[in-house]
């Protein structure tokens, strides 16, 4: 493979590199660095006080916690959905297939309104759940539900192509060599889909961190209890506290970037492990 | 091929530069205005704009088209501060308009004196909406903090309208015989303990109350309350008018820097004056806002019950003071909320 490295389908490495830098610069780098510039109007103690206020800390906990739970739920159930869609043919399959993408296309405010209507104490799901003692709407559980909803397609759509690439005869081969179904799954299938699962997790997690529309409806926005970071930023803006808003945004930005970096490293590590496996 | 790596950004910059210089197409025979307003005034300004265009064309032989922009009041003000070319703003509270002066010097400090009645051509007040038959027997503010009563009001930190609600409650408690700052604070604190959900905006709160069936009482602007009972269901909701409430004054002003740049000052000022005209006042009343004109108000008196009203200037010393004392970070609202959460 290495010997072909100089042959490219698209000519002009320098042109495309120039394009890449310009594009990423204009759309990502400059806007984000202006965020940092705006916070410079705060002194360091002011900045620290803003980003470590009890309300801010509670909001980080909720945003990161609920996003993590949601992404985790999506890994488990998204994998199941992808598995069923790839391995089985059943009536209505193509319908389910297109339903999976719906959370992508739906304006998140619509999702939020719908979920809140269902899960509020008078809603279809809500009234039964509350009878059982579960409060979903207007609690942190509701936040996680909304974030799970919007994150589902990420896991399904990253895992699906990988599952499609694994031929059924790999499983058959494992079976002929005497592997139990559990062994086949943990030793053969799971390592192959792990990198895809990880990227699905990252995407769902990252998406959930920034989510606003669907959550403000279902969370109830109670300070210190169900207030997410994006709402806190909006709250600061309502007070024309631009510097305060950007200070919290910068914390989110740095934290998200670090998390993405960690997951990227993990992903690369699992890729390498996969490639190093004998016979892979 | 070395040149190519920098050629692209250069072209892009050139392209962006060019697109800026075009525009400004309004000739003397036609003029457009942009009215940046808040959410619940959409229908009102559809009517006002049509009537004003007719009026202006008849008196000045000039076509005028008024574009509308609606959203949360604070969000709209920020858009104007950040460069949205509004000729006039018609927002929910003076504090948001003050920021046009403070943050971007788009208007002079004393803008609120430029038009009659604090530059608010119409007012509203804060009332309650309850479910049909008023099952919890809610008559006045003090009923809201009775055991078992659940109150819906949006978050005053994110909603301009909700700030009026909060100040109305505070003012009621303060003006009661024997009322003090302490008792007002205690009242508002217990009121918010009866609030199960803090929606981020007024319409969201209305949805929570009306569509999701949460809460026994919704604190709302009178015009929104009329809208809900008239258009969503008289058979489902009732309006309860408390004994005292605040005068909500949504102010209007010309955005000086923009109208001078665009040469639209004359028509923009006439547009706002039109709101004070008899026709304007009638439209205002039609959309459930309380008109300033006594005559128009008298004709519509049945719809706007009398109650003891106080203004924000009387009780709180104006919006700036109210905002910094109650709603800014570290203000009263925060301290009301902080202790009860763990």
From TrEMBL, chain A:
Protein name per UniProt: Sulfate transport system permease protein CysT
NCBIfam families the UniProt entry points to: 3a0106s02, permease_CysT
UniProt similarity note: Belongs to the binding-protein-dependent transport system permease family. CysTW subfamily.
Membrane topology of this protein: Multi-pass membrane protein
Family matches, as InterPro entries: CysT_permease, MetI-like, MetI-like_sf, Sulph_transpt2
Main subcellular location: membrane
Record function comment: Part of the ABC transporter complex (TC 3.A.1.6.1) involved in sulfate/thiosulfate import. Part of the ABC transporter complex CysAWTP (TC 3.A.1.6.1) involved in sulfate/thiosulfate import. Probably responsible for the translocation of the substrate across the membrane.
The species this protein was found in: Myxococcus landrumensis
Listed transmembrane segments: 21-44, 64-86, 98-116, 136-156, 188-209, 242-266
Keywords: Membrane, Sulfate transport, Transmembrane, Transmembrane helix, Transport
Subcellular location: Cell membrane
Keyword Coiled coil attributed: no
Record SUPFAM superfamilies: MetI-like (SSF161098)
Subunit structure: The complex is composed of two ATP-binding proteins (CysA), two transmembrane proteins (CysT and CysW) and a solute-binding protein (CysP).
All residue ranges annotated as the ABC transmembrane type-1 domain in the record: 60-263
From TrEMBL, chain B:
InterPro entries tied to this protein: Sulphate/thiosulphate_BS, Thiosulph/SO4-bd
Alphabetically ordered keywords of this record: Periplasm, Signal, Transport
Pfam hit, one: SBP_bac_11
Coiled coil feature spans: none
Compartment(s) of residence: Periplasm
NCBIfam families listed in its UniProt record: 3a0106s03, PRK10752.1, PRK10852.1
Family of this protein: Belongs to the prokaryotic sulfate-binding protein family.
Name of the protein in question: Sulfate ABC transporter substrate-binding protein
Native organism: Myxococcus landrumensis
Classification of source organism: Bacteria, Pseudomonadati, Myxococcota, Myxococcia, Myxococcales
């Amino acid at each position: 493979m290495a010997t072909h490295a100089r042959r490219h389908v698209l000519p002009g490495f320098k042109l495309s590199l120039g394009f890449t830098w310009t594009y990423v610069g204009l759309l990502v780098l400059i806007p984000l660095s202006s965020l940092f510039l705006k916070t410079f109007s705060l002194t360091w103690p002011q900045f620290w006080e803003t980003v470590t206020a009890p309300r801010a800390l509670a909001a980080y906990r909720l945003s990161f916690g609920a996003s993590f739970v949601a992404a985790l739920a999506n890994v488990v159930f998204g994998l199941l959905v992808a598995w069923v869609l790839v391995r089985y043919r059943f009536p209505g399959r193509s319908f389910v297939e297109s339903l999976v993408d719906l959370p992508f296309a739906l304006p998140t405010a619509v999702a939020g309104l719908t979920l809140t209507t269902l899960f509020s104490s008078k809603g279809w799901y809500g009234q039964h759940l509350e009878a059982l003692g579960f409060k979903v709407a207007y609690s942190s559980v509701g936040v996680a539900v909304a974030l799970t909803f919007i994150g589902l397609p990420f896991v399904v759509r990253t895992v699906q192509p990988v599952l499609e690439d694994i031929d059924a005869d790999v499983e058959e081969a494992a079976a002929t060599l005497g592997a139990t179904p559990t062994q086949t799954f943990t030793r053969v299938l799971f390592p192959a889909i792990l990198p895809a699962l990880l990227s699905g997790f990252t995407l769902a997690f990252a998406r959930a961190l920034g989510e606003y529309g669907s959550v403000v409806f279902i969370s109830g926005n109670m300070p210190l209890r169900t207030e997410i970071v994006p709402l806190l930023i909006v709250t600061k803006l309502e007070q024309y506290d631009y510097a305060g808003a950007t200070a919290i945004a910068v914390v989110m930005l740095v934290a998200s970037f670090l998390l993405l970096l960690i997951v990227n490293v993990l992903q690369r590590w699992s890729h390498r492990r996969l490639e190093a496996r004998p016979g892979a | 091929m070395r040149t190519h790596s920098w050629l692209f950004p250069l072209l892009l910059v050139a392209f962006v530069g060019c697109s800026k210089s075009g525009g400004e197409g309004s000739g003397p025979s036609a003029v457009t205005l942009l009215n940046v307003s808040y959410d619940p005034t959409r229908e009102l300004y559809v009517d006002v704009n049509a009537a004003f265009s007719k009026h202006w064309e008849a008196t000045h032989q000039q076509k005028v088209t008024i574009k509308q922009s609606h959203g949360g009041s604070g969000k709209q003000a920020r858009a104007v501060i950040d460069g949205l070319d509004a000729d006039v703003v018609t927002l929910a509270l003076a504090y948001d308009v003050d920021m046009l002066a403070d943050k971007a010097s788009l208007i002079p400090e004393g803008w609120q004196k430029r038009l009659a009645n604090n530059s608010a051509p119409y007012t509203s007040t804060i009332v309650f909406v309850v479910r049909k038959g008023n099952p919890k027997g809610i008559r006045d503010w003090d009923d809201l903090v009775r055991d078992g009563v659940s109150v819906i009001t949006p978050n005053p930190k994110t909603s301009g309208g909700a700030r009026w609600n909060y100040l109305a409650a505070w003012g009621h408690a303060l003006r009661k015989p024997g009322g003090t700052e302490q008792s007002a604070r205690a009242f508002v604190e217990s009121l918010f303990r009866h609030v199960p959900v803090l929606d981020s905006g007024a319409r969201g709160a209305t949805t929570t109350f009306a569509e999701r069936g949460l809460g026994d009482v919704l604190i709302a602007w009178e015009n929104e309350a009329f809208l809900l009972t008239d258009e969503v269901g008289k058979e489902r909701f009732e309006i309860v008018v408390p004994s005292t409430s605040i005068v909500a004054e949504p102010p209007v002003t010309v955005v000086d820097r923009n109208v001078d740049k665009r040469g639209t000052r004359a028509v923009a000022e006439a547009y706002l004056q039109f709101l004070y005209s008899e026709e304007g006042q009638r439209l205002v009343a039609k959309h459930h806002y309380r008109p300033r004109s006594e005559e128009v108000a008298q004709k519509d008196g049945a719809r706007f019950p009398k109650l003891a009203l106080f203004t924000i200037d009387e009780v709180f010393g104006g919006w700036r003071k109210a905002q910094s004392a109650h709603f800014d970070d570290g203000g009263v609202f925060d301290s009301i909320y902080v202790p009860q959460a763990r």
